[in-house]
Write a structure and sequence with these properties.
The structure is a single chain. By secondary structure, this protein is mainly α. Helix content is 65%, strand content 0%. The protein contains four helices and no strands. It is elongated, with a radius of gyration of 12 Å. The chain starts with 5 loop residues before the first helix and ends with a helix.
């Protein structure tokens, strides 16, 4: 079994922050909910490559949980 770690989580911070800060859709998702959800899916795929265990069914890790709740 693979485990996530602080190191892996820290490696996700830059790609996450860069993506969100440069996204026109995520900065104002109200009128484009479907596009925002699709973009979050792309972002989640990118983060899964960096920290796969965080998305492997464990609810307590921040990225999977945060991305699922972004718009709610």
């Amino acid at each position: 079994m693979l485990y996530s770690s602080i190191d892996l989580w820290l490696r996700t911070l830059h790609p996450y922050g860069l993506h969100v800060s440069e996204s026109k859709i995520l900065s104002d998702p109200d009128d484009r909910e479907d596009k925002a959800l699709a973009e979050l899916g792309v972002l989640a795929d990118e983060l899964k490559k960096i920290d796969p265990p965080a998305f492997d069914g464990y609810i307590g890790f921040i990225w999977a949980e945060f991305l699922d709740r972004w718009l709610w």
